[in-house]
Amino acid sequence: MSALTDTAPAGGPAPDAQGTTSPERSPGPAPAVEVTVLVPARDERGSIERCLGSVLSQQGVDFEVVVVDNGSTDGTTELLEALAERDPRVVVVPQPVPSIPVSLNAGLARARGRWLVRVDAHSTISEGYLAHAVERLREGRWAAVGGRKTAVGRTPVGRAVAAVLNSKLAVGGSTYHWGTEEQVVDHIPFGCYPTELVRQLGGWDTEIANNEDFEFDQRLRRQGEILFDPALTIDWDSRETVGALYRQYRRYGTGKPGVALRHPGSLKLRHLAPPLLVAYLAGAAVLGLRRPGLALAAVAPYAAGVVAVGSRISRSAPEGADRAAVPLALAAMQVGWGVGFWRGVSTLLRRRVAKGDA
User: Fold this and answer.
1) Which CATH superfamily is domain 1-123 in?
2) Any transmembrane segments, and where (predicted)?
3) β-strands 123-125, 225-237 pairing
4) Less crowded by CB within 10 Å, the N or C end of the chain?
5) Distance (Å, rounded) from C-alpha 348 to C-alpha 358?
6) d(Cα 324, Cα 154) in Å, to the nearest integer?
7) Residues 213, 39, 250, CA angle at the centre, nearest 5°?
């Protein structure tokens, strides 16, 4: 049988509501379910109920929800435990190490589903999402399928941030942000996979703290194609301040050099644009110490470009968005990613030096 066909993972003791096995209640292997929905969560009290509500209302498939509690301290743990008591489909797996890939692997180890669907804790999935994902995976053609991730803001600045994240002008080749046509892609953010295939690949790389999903997809593509299907839709909570967006994209950028080192072919010209921009801006800042006028002239074209593109994006911003924040969000995303990239390079170099001294 091909790794992409309908294969069931091995069964195991049935987890109880708190995510632990109970030999007395379930002495034999638990029957597999069609789908395991895997949700890593850390301090998501404000969004986890909406997220799980959208999952638990799904119809047409037999599923379980494995929520990996990644050391929450805001009350998320207690909320999850209460929900698991009410609904036996919910399994809570404690995992205190602050790591997304470690949490994903912990959930993978407990998964009983033939198919594995990752859902972000601050997102909601559309009606029929699981059934449609399973239908596409059953075709046997795809190593993974995924859908369109639409950013949603809840404050005026958050809506401005969402407008940037949903714009092709801002995110370029990241089809899952704006795509409307079915196509083969190199990455999807919250994938749906054959569980056994994920296990064969060893799950997510715990040495890649950020960009772990992109790195996984590069290994997955050696097994088959990844399908972007816009019929699968995900509403995803955007950051609500420009500063939070900057920190988010700085974190994304930090993981990129490590992924590029493992998969050089995955690095595209668009990935190099933000770090080159940051290097250029840093050079202008140094120049500004002695020639401020010249430095301003050097930065002016970028500033004008951000304002112009921001103005175009603002036209499609949702009602109630702070349109003045759109160019700031655009710059924060680009500069944050670029700064993160150089931090990632610095981290890799320090590790190389440390290994050389060892």
Assistant:
1) Spore Coat Polysaccharide Biosynthesis Protein SpsA; Chain A (3.90.550.10)
2) none
3) antiparallel
4) C
5) 15
6) 16
7) 45
pLDDT at position 29: 55
Q: Tell me the three state secondary structure of residue 191.
A: coil
Distance CA 326, CA 336 (A): 15
**For 93-134, how does the pLDDT look when each residue is reduced to its tens digit (9 = 90+)?**
999 988 999 999 999 999 999 999 999 999 999 999 999 999
Place of tokens 């435990």: 81
C-alpha–C-alpha distance, residues 260 and 323, integer Å:
35
Map out the domains of the chain as residue ranges. Answer: 1-123, 260-357
Phi, psi (rounded to 5 degrees) for 35: -130, 135
Task: Outline where the chain has alpha helix (H).
Answer: 48-56, 76-86, 100-110, 129-137, 156-165, 168-171, 175-178, 195-200, 212-220, 242-262, 269-288, 292-314, 325-357
Distance of CA 50 to the CA centre of its chain: 18
Tokens representing 144?
Answer: 């993974």
Cβ count within 10 A of residue 316: 12
Residues 6+ apart with CB under 8 A from 328: 160, 242, 310
> The tokens of 255 are what?
């993981």
